[in-house]
Prior knowledge:
Elements: E1 2-7, H1 20-32, E2 35-40, E3 43-44, H2 53-69, E4 75-77, E5 81-83, H3 88-93, E6 105-109, H4 116-128, E7 132-135, H5 147-157, E8 160-164, H6 165-169, H7 174-185, E9 191-193, H8 206-217, H9 219-234
Parallel strand pairs: 1-2, 2-4, 3-5, 5-6, 6-7, 7-8, 8-9
Helix pairs in contact: 4-5, 8-9
Amino acid sequence: xxxxxxxxxxxxxxxxxxxxxxxxxxxxxxxxxxxxxxxxxxxxxxxxxxxxxxxxxxxxxxxxxxxxxxxxxxxxxxxxxxxxxxxxxxxxxxxxxxxxxxxxxxxxxxxxxxxxxxxxxxxxxxxxxxxxxxxxxxxxxxxxxxxxxxxxxxxxxxxxxxxxxxxxxxxxxxxxxxxxxxxxxxxxxxxxxxxxxxxxxxxxxxxxxxxxxxxxxxxxxxxxxxxxxxxxxxxxx
Length: 237
């Protein structure tokens, strides 16, 4: 039922699954949460930390083989979560950043205390190279306090916006929830994804988030955020 656009499933690459057993547990939890498609998004920090490209590809194929052998209805795509650095444009131009499912969409993250000017500069750089920036877990950034800031990113760069499922179901933080209510109501968010890491700790929560979105914002928006908008991107493959 759900498409998870942001998931650290592939083991031995980053702070996601530590080993293949961890990957299997994450698969089981994703299936339990009615996820049928995952874009695997290990961290990459261009120019600062080496990325194990061949290991990622090998472990991804190992995981796909496991799904096939066990008849698990789960489709995996390549991707990454790129921490924007000055080297990111070069890495994109050299094909060293995995886009989301081989589309022209790039999942980009920032440090929590980065300034809004940094997010604008990054979006402009990515867009000028012909890519669509997808801003990861926007609720984490101190500089994004007003819906107008998201509207500007969308208006100037056709940027897309992702929020974590765990944030949707979090009942703590009055001001954060008020902010989330506004950006959901104004339809400034495109994807709700798990950002799942090694278990236990950072779980999937996709089914619970869908239920919460349905109650608060209606079934149509809940469907769009958890799979409809993502499937539009995947159809271009």
